[in-house]
């Protein structure tokens, strides 16, 4: 941190302003499953995408579309990419946020030394300024080939709090979790086997308040490592759970699992009643989309 920003010789690729720092912190924190975690950032005329991954088996993306920002000025050619520390970015953003105050911050890239610059712009008395060192972007180790499973997609939407609770409860039985979908009776079953057996079932018609949507025309069953499945919900913001939003789980080719969450990036005090889930309701523009991709366990 420093008291005043350096002067840039060239116009930056991106200058944008945001009035919901806490919303961005919530969105980025949801994909921070390790203390020391690197991320790849891609910027374009459509917005900002942040990507993290682990062991070629788990990948997460945070989509911050340009509509989330008060202003979004983009002048680069192509889609610049750079790497940075996700933890450092979240910690820097937290320094701008304080209880009862929602500051407006400006985000600029690149600075004179290719750094990411953040500064407060809503006060004439105090200016918080931070620089985050970036690096040449690493190559993403795997491309999540998420094709449809046959012709009809297999998916269900469940209240985020219920999904997190189910995954948390499955920690003790085993390191591998089985997810079973069956059309008759329409239900989703989470099952852990190992030190003990635990099965959590969500019947569609009996629990329509928890299981919001269900699309399945055949019985399928896939297994996933518990540590990767847990990473998809372990750091979901309390505001998401409190707002009773839904998370959508979709099964792609070979059992590739996509889990999608919605995180509000609206200014505090502004409530958007129409973005609670993925069931086709009107979506607010000020929503960050979080996607996790989890590879299934291979049969031995």
From TrEMBL:
GO terms for cellular component: checkpoint clamp complex. InterPro entries: DNA_clamp_sf, Rad1_Rec1_Rad17. Its main location: nucleus. CDD domains: PCNA. It comes from the Eukaryota. It is found in: Nucleus. The keyword DNA repair applies. Keywords: DNA damage, DNA repair, Nucleus. GO terms for biological process: DNA damage checkpoint signaling; DNA repair. Belongs to the rad1 family. This is Uncharacterized protein. It comes from Spirodela intermedia (Intermediate duckweed). The lineage of its organism: Eukaryota, Viridiplantae, Streptophyta, Embryophyta, Tracheophyta.
């Amino acid at each position: 941190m420093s008291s005043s920003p350096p002067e840039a010789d060239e116009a930056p690729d991106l200058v944008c302003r945001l009035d919901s720092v806490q919303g961005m912190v919530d969105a980025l924190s949801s994909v921070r499953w390790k203390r020391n975690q690197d991320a790849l950032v891609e910027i374009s005329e459509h917005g900002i995408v942040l990507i993290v991954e682990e062991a070629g088996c788990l990948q997460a993306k945070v989509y911050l579309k340009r509509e989330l920002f008060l202003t979004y000025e983009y002048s680069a050619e192509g889609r610049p990419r750079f790497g940075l520390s996700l933890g450092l970015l979240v910690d820097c953003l937290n320094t701008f946020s304080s209880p009862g105050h929602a500051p407006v911050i400006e985000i600029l890239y690149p600075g004179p030394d290719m750094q990411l610059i953040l500064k407060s712009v809503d006060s004439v008395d105090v200016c918080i300024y931070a620089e985050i060192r970036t690096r040449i972007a690493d190559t993403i180790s795997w491309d999540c080939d998420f094709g449809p499973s046959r012709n009809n997609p297999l998916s269900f939407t469940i209240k985020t709090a219920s999904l997190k609770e189910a995954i948390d409860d499955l920690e003790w039985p085993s390191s591998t979790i089985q997810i079973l979908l069956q059309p008759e009776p329409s239900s989703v079953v989470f099952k852990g086997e190992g030190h003990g057996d635990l099965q959590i079932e969500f019947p569609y018609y009996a629990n329509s308040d928890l299981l919001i949507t269900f699309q399945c025309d055949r019985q399928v069953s896939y297994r996933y490592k518990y540590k990767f499945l847990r990473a998809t919900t372990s750091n979901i913001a309390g505001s998401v759970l409190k707002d009773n939003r839904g998370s959508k789980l979709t099964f792609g080719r070979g059992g590739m699992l996509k889990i999608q969450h919605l995180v509000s990036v609206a200014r505090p005090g502004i409530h958007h009643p129409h973005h609670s889930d993925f069931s086709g309701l009107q979506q607010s523009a000020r929503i960050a989309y979080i996607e996790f991709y989890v590879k299934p366990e291979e049969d031995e």
